[in-house]
Design brief:
The protein is of the alpha+beta class. The protein is built from 3 helices and 7 strands.
């Protein structure tokens, strides 16, 4: 399940909803990662643009990998502005065994940072400034690829 929200994520509502939906489906492990906007370099928050068709395709490929291990991946991400000390990203892996979930959550989050079509901007003085120094070019992106 991939969910996109405008603004900050309500961690408790999202997590509790996932927990209530999947707690009786015989998963023994429910591992989460929560991304919180840090106060650094004088920013007021972050802002995100998302290219949903590619994100959906990328996420579906990860679901296929997870299903091969009897696991399930869940993800929520913010669109638009997210103030400091609030959440912009939640990922979770459910699996019958903890080792599978622990390995998948690590690989999923690392691949997300490298390949998800989400562009990050710093919020400074009420303006969005592209966070180029903390961004990664997407594979096969650009005119010469």
């Amino acid at each position: 399940m991939l969910s996109l929200y405008d603004g900050s994520l309500n961690v408790e509502r999202i997590f509790n909803g996932w927990h209530d939906e999947y707690k009786t489906q015989n998963f023994g492990a429910f591992i989460t990662f929560v991304g919180i906007v840090r106060d650094e370099d004088g920013i007021e928050g972050l802002s995100f643009d998302i290219y949903e068709p590619i994100l959906t395709s990328w996420f579906e490929a990860w679901q296929t990998k997870a299903k091969e291990q009897n696991a399930l991946i869940l993800m929520a991400h913010s669109r638009g502005d997210v103030p400091l000390h609030t959440t912009s990203y939640i990922a979770a892996v459910l699996s019958p065994k903890r080792k599978v979930a622990l390995a998948l959550i690590n690989d999923f989050v690392e691949d997300f940072k490298a390949k998800a079509p989400i562009w990050k901007y710093d919020l400074r003085g009420g303006k969005r400034v592209y966070a180029e120094d903390r961004s990664t070019a997407l594979p096969s992106a650009g005119l010469l690829s």
